Amino acid sequence: MRFQVPQFIEIEDKIFGQLTFKQFIYLAGGVGGSIVLYIYIPFKIISIILIIPLLALSGALAFYKVNGKSFIDVIESSFYFYTGNKLYLWKKAERKPKSKIEDQMEQMRSTVSVPRLSDSKLKDLTWSLDIKEALNPVTREEK
After folding, report:
1. In whole angstroms, what is the distance from residue 19 CA to residue 13 CA?
2. By mean pLDDT, which of 84-88, 115-119, 129-133, 139-143 is the weakest?
3. Which residues of 86-107 are buried (b: 16+ CB within 10 A; e: fewer)?
4. Rounded to an integer, what is the distance from CA 109 to the centroid of its chain?
5. Contact predicate 71/61, CB 8 Å
6. CA-to-CA distance for 49 and 66, rounded, in angstroms?
7. What's the first-to-final CA gap in the chain, in angstroms?
8. What is the number of other CB atoms lying within 10 angstroms of the CB of residue 71?
């Protein structure tokens, strides 16, 4: 017995003519909302001004795609972006300008580095060298 493998599973079924179920709901909601606005707002010019963006939004939700994604996904992603927490990894901090004297002093400190050994450190160094020489008796002639 052979079974048929479904093809094109990412494409939604066309239910209402050339419209999918989602597209039909978006358009029906836009048209229904437009009718409600037209009937219940007494000034017809104000109702038409409100109806035009509502119909544009319902048309965009039904048909408009941004980079292959539906418009409702783009709106949802932008909402989460603007309301969610953001992690800043680096912020530039302003530095105070140094005077010429401070720059010269810093250059002098970096170029002149003389190690300072006190008497006790010098004695410790000679003692450690004597101990290592005594533990590892290798003369200069053997090297």
Report:
1. 8
2. 139-143
3. eeeeeeeeeeeeeeeeeeeeee
4. 42
5. yes
6. 26
7. 88
8. 17
> What pLDDT was estimated at residue 111?
66
Burial class (CB in 10 A: 0-12, 13-18, 19+), 74: middle
Q: What is the pLDDT of residues 64-115, one digit of tens each?
A: 999 989 999 999 999 999 999 888 777 777 777 777 777 777 777 766 555 6
Any idea of the CA torsion for 132, 137, 140, 143, to the nearest 10 degrees? Answer: -100
DSSP H helical ranges for 1-143: 21-40, 44-63, 71-83, 100-111, 119-135
Q: What whole-number distance in Å separates Cα of residue 6 and Cα of residue 135?
A: 83
